[in-house]
Amino acid sequence: MAKPDRYVGIHNDINGGMTAAGKIIRDGWVFGLIEETETCEGWNLQGLDALLDKVDKEWDKYGCMVSNLPEDLRERHERIYRAAVQRAKDAGWSGEAETDDEQ
Fold first, then answer.
1. Can you tell me whether residue 14 is helix, strand or coil?
2. For the chain, what is the radius of gyration of the CA atoms?
3. Among 1, 46, 53, 87, which residue has the fewest nearby CB atoms (within 10 Å)?
4. What is the dihedral of CA 23, 27, 30, 32, to 10 degrees?
C-alpha cells in the first residue's frame, strides 16, 4: 500500500495528532510560523519539511528546551500542548506507544 502524498491534517491524524507531523505543526503554532487554525491538511511532504526546517531554527535559538523559551512562548507552548494532549486522550491516545520500548 502506497503512502499518501498529502498530509491528512493534524485533526485527522492518527493518535489524536500525537505524531511527528503533529509535533511539527504544534511547534509551528507555538512560534507563530503558521496560524493556529492551520491544520496542514493537504500539504505535501516538502511543505512539512520546510516547516520543520523553520521550527528547528526557532528551537535552536532556545537550546531546544521549553524552559528556555521567553514567557509568552512558554505560555503558548503550554496552552497548545495541554489542549493537544487532552484532544488526543479524548480520541483514545494514552501515550503508551511512545514509552513501550523503555521498559
1. helix
2. 14
3. 1
4. -130
